[in-house]
Amino acid sequence: xxxxxxxxxxxxxxxxxxxxxxxxxxxxxxxxxxxxxxxxxxxxxxxxxxxxxxxxxxxxxxxxxxxxxxxxxxxxxxxxxxxxxxxxxxxxxxxxxxxxxxxxxxxxxxxxxxxxxxxxxxxxxxxxxxxxxxxxxxxxxxxxxxxxxxxxxxxxxxxxxxxxxxxxxxxxxxxxxxxxxxxxxxxxxxxxxxxxxxxxxxxxxxxxxxxxxxxxxxxxxxxxxxxxxxxxxxxxxxxxxxxxxxxxxxxxxxxxxxxxxxxxxxxxxxxxxxxxxxxxxxxxxxxxxxxxxxxxxxxxxxxxxxxxxxxxxxxxxxxxxxxxxxxxxxxxxxxxxxxxxxxxxxxxxxxxxxxxxxxxxxxxxxxxxxxxxxxxxxxxxxxxxxxxxxxxxxxxxxxxxxxxxxxxxxxxxxxxxxxxxxxxxxxxxxxxxxxxxxxxxxxxxxxxxxxxxxxxxxxxxxxxxxxxxxxxxxxxxxxxxxxxxxxxxxxxxxxxxxxxxxxxxxxxxxxxxx
Length: 514
Known about the structure:
The chain is mostly helical. The chain has three domains: 6-176, no CATH class; 178-258 and 405-514, no CATH class; 263-397, no CATH class. Helix content is 70%, strand content 0%. The chain contains 20 helices and no strands. The chain has helices at residues 6-25, 31-47, 49-70, 77-99, 101-104, 117-132, 142-150, 154-157, 178-210, 219-249, 267-273, 276-291, 294-307, 309-332, 336-367, 375-397, 401-413, 432-461, 471-476, 480-497. α9 runs parallel beside α20, α10 (219-249) packs across α17 (401-413) and α16 packs across α17 (401-413). The protein is globular and about 65 Å long. The protein starts with 5 loop residues before the first helix and ends in a 17-residue tail after the last helix.
């Protein structure tokens, strides 16, 4: 039951009505029970009864071990560590067994991967680790722990929510609020626009060029890869818009997972803007703990003796980052293409960027006297970062590592940008009208993204900034006729130009498989 399907919208409408009616009937209680029942029902309809056991079992194990942890004296570090190891072994064991063994024994083992496996595993692990470190109060209710681990909108593609920051709101009562309903549905509409109008269309171009033995070379490979970048972004961020907007109608605030990532000036900034909750989770629960281990502390001392304090510290950090980025790649899948394209390649980008920064700063700033923060320099950095990210996307979208290397070779074998203007791009799955709709829609997306980016900068630079902090707030500040005209136009745009209707099957969100 995909988030863009008619059946899901009917399901959501029924849940929303019950969510606000139940507390009226039961004197302010029961909202979280409605969400739990809806989550169980959604998972059962989407996956069936057998696969429903996985998130429930993971939630039960986490709750039981948290309860065991709270009964142990904090001075009994060995016993507490044993409970932590048990939690890691069970949850990561299930994750590895279901998600990665099939890549090793692809011909002999066929295992169904439960919906949202990586997301609820990381959420529950993060919660347990926070309790272990004493920075999160334990949740004593098994059913509330199940709701946190199984909240149905998050099952599709996240975001990864921390219980100590945003998870407690699941269990609180939320009054019916006009602003929450309208803003939430507006955010959902924007997600439908991204997914149904842009992502579904661009997918046709990508599938044509990326098909095995398609024969496309040169500029067509890079054109299709850029299309895939926007397909993946509008698919994943569109899903986040639907999830965040849907949750907002329940009075729940979910963390932002995307903040205009294609406007990033370097790879580190890109990952602070793309799938942000995964990056935060990895840093908090893998990267920083790694640096505190005896091995890395001893390694840091050794590096500092050999290479000096500054370089030694940097080398130690890069070594820990290699493990971090390998883990990020493995999170996406056990295939080598994910480890390279979503992991090690980005590690190499960051290391090379940090290592060469002093030289390029000296060259461009001191010798050539180029303003590194000027508009031209920033535009170049944005384009450069987008290109580097696209190389990783070739691995992500290709059928295998070998296929990715073949496509990259084809992309540099010939390159004639004039081929984009000789009419052949209309043979890639979209005719002239469909391609025009796609590009006009991307232009709308870029305009909105730039507006949001500028508002984010204002809020970051000026803590007392009192202006609109989102495009929705900006539209809400306009006269009623104008703002309603904007939203009605967007609704009609999605209805008339969205990819749905007879013969349409709601496609899975790309990150749903992770």
